Amino acid sequence: MTIYPVFEITPDLRRAGKLDRREFQGLLTKFWVNHPQLGKSLVKLDRPYGKNWTEKVAYEIGKLMQLPMARYELAVLSETFESNANAPGIITINYKQEGLSYQESEAVIFQQLGHYPYNFNEETNFIAENNIELPPNYEPPDNINDGLDLWTGQIIFDGLIANQDRHGKNWEIGVDSNGNKSLAPLFDNGMSFGMTIAGRLANEPDLTPQKYMTTQTSYFNEYHRDLVGKMMKLRPSAAVTWLRQANKLTPDTIDEIINSVPDSHITPIEREFAKDLVKYNRQDFLRLAQKNLYESYSQEVREIGLAGSQKMAMNALSEGMDREIVTEMMKNHDPEYRKLAERGQGKMAEKAVITQAQVKLRMSQKSLSRQQFPNQEKSNELDFKESNPDFW
Description:
9 strands, 16 helices, 3 domains
């Protein structure tokens, strides 16, 4: 595991270029620098009600899901406007492309609706009705074709990290010289992972991720689970694609992403709560989408009967879906599985479908490994013989 680097921001660096200016928009002190390694970047001081690590972790999760993300790195300021003491911060590498002018969505949508604030449905309809496109030069996952497909992924992403701050100043629209509009990369994701209640975690051990997600809402005063459900109905194919991208966030991967934050930037309680929160939301959204996921897998399988059920379960397992979720999905939606379960043979159904799918998956992976590295087993045997001559 590699610990995330922390970039130092010195007073000389801040004062060095024409980009140096203090910005007052938002709640944080922020200013631009020309960083020797990162280029034009925006530096923000740590917020009083959260931590800069949330931006870094959100960036890593979004990148893994193949969302267009503004890059974030941890920083430390050796001198701030308020003090000479070291201060934690975050640095955002400039994501804006030449040839595009970027506008806050709040202003663009206000021009059309004539009122503010607007609700989630109005915001989503704006993206659909105005043919908002994908960011230029962005390579999306398969089946993601336009701005509304991408918006679906952003809503699922915000739900996974429990982002409470996706207001109209925290997502932008790029406009080219012909007036074509596209979504900008995601930025300002820091009000996430339960950091608004970080101070309560030590004193409220019963504050579980499940309890948190049923008491805290998104910026739109709707629960994240409800927003994800809306997008599953509006864009089911895109939602399935993004949930399959979220399958890459296995428990081990989530642990690695969050454990890579240095101890100097995160408390043990914050670290564990964040890991548990993302794992809980991932499982919850997969359960919410079981039917859609099952239909997606069924379209990829030509086999019928029990062999087809095994193949669907194998495909789901191969993409990182937990056995528990796959078992629930098959039990609730697969005819062959349900036939066995309805006869009182639930354990036999699980063994015949899920366990056999796992066995076939391991055999398939082993066979693929042999094809890719035909000399590996022989090499391993020779290494063993050389290092253990007395064994022979």
